[in-house]
Amino acid sequence: MNRRRITEDVLIEKYRYGGIAGIESYLIPADAFIMSDALSSDVIDLFNKYGMDNIDKWNAISRLISDASIKKGFHEKKKTTITG
Q1: What pLDDT is attached to residue 75?
Q2: Any idea what the Cα angle at residue 1 is, between residues 48 and 42, rounded to 5°?
Q3: CA 66, 36, 44, 3 torsion: positive or negative?
Q4: For residues 63-83, b (16+ Cβ closer than 10 Å) or e, as one string?
Q5: Contact call for residues 23 and 15 (beta carbons, < 8 A)
Q6: How confident is the model at residue 81 (pLDDT cuts 50, 70, 90)?
Q7: Which of 4, 31, 53, 80 makes the best surface tag, with the fewest CB within 10 Å?
Q8: What confidence tens digit (pLDDT) does each residue in 20-38 have?
């Protein structure tokens, strides 16, 4: 069985470096998913939704992940202490 542990961090990383094609290639070969957060659950719900136009499905998934990516930011600012 080919299981995938899906997390917000993994989805964002795959999306940032591979776009929606990176997400698709990560999800399609899996037989089962283990989700650990709301974003992962929402993405997998859409991914498994039948009767939805494929383009609309991937656009919705892309929107969810890109919004989460923007909220997370690209670099966390670290405190810099200057001593003199």
Answers
A1: 63
A2: 25
A3: positive
A4: ebbeebbeeeeeeeeeeeeee
A5: yes
A6: low
A7: 80
A8: 999 999 999 899 999 999 9
